[in-house]
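Archive entry: two folds, one per protein. Generate the first.
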Amino acid sequence: MTDKTKTPGATPGDDASGLIQKQLTDRRARNAAELDAISLAYDKHIFKAQGKRAGTQWLTDEFIRRVHLDMFGEIWEWAGKYRNSRGRQNSKPIYSGNESR
């Protein structure tokens, strides 16, 4: 798979491990699919919920993973799960799943 949209220093776009929608053969196609899914997740979780959650503790680990799953679950197998490996080269994970809870 050749990625014609590679940006210097960006996470490699040719890593399709965990890709559910095999027809998304380049980074541009995956970005477009992700953008659509992110917009739907925003409408579902953020836009419609504004004001309803005031005064309650709603920004929980479970909620964050649910939003992430809704954003990427139709595209990537890893959606809604904590990363077990380093994503970008030369970067360090800030928090593990246990530390963020």
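Generate the second and append.
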Amino acid sequence: MPANLPPQYFEAEKKYRTAKTTDEKIAALEDMLAIMPKHKGTEHLQGDLKSKIAKLKRQPVKKGPTAKKSIYDIEREGAGQAILVGPPNTGKSQLIKILTNINPLIAPYPFSTRKPNIGMMEYENIKIQLIDIPPLSADYIDPWIPNLLRNTDVIILVIDISEEKPIQQIEKTIESLKKYKIDFIRSDTAEHYHPGKVYKKIIIVCNKYDLVKNQNNYKIILQQYNNRYPVITVSSKTEENIKEFKDLIFRELEIIRVHSKAPGKEPDLNDPMIFGKGTSVLEVARSIHKDFEEKFKFAKVWGSTKFGGQKVPRDYILEDGDIIEIHI
């Protein structure tokens, strides 16, 4: 199936090729990914772009003597990054405490979070970086926040579902972010693409579900948003749906875990390599060593193949949990 890429894609690709900074490259690649039609013919290209984005985001920030330093320089760690946003008193700090075991300040009054709370969420054999930022306001957002959100992988919008008007919590937060050209996608991004905006994955988290007395609010949220964004109910008090919440964060990152294996030896299943969905065998080989691309003969894969140790070609698309043995 042909890719049938629109003209806007090639304009974004030109920006990527002429980009001088890492942030500019990431922004251009994310534009390319957002514009690209999502079908079978672009699966390989999607995986390639996601891998490039992930690789750039894992690079350490270069600091020069004239570089402007943010009040909070947060180094990316782990297999991916997600940021918790939302109005005051929705329970974000309690959630990140449960998910990562850090101990942020938790208070019954609004705006108790004044600086980012950073923790690592363990998910099976990987760790995912979670960041809880100060509440967003329609009138003011701390200057360091928009850039942090533009470069993250997933935005987690936390609301208090027990309040009377939860829809307003969602809409006000989304509108606050749109002022900074941050928009959200789930599927069919090409039709809604606007140049200059950054499109991010979003999860709507209905917290304090244990306090809900009727289901009307949740039903309204599902009707309005569930066809566009993932929606989940949780309780930071009873820890209801926390495991399902972790699963959802992992899925929305759209990453796969790949284990390398030397011939005749057992694979290391504790420290997987991380790639974007749609990554091919050759892309994995190239990431291990640049010479592997030219010397590549074939690979054996355990996991997604019909039988263990099956020989696969260089363009074989890997899946989460695959074990790969490269022969050169």
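Annotation attached to the second fold: The mean pLDDT is 85. The two ends are 30 Å apart (CA to CA).
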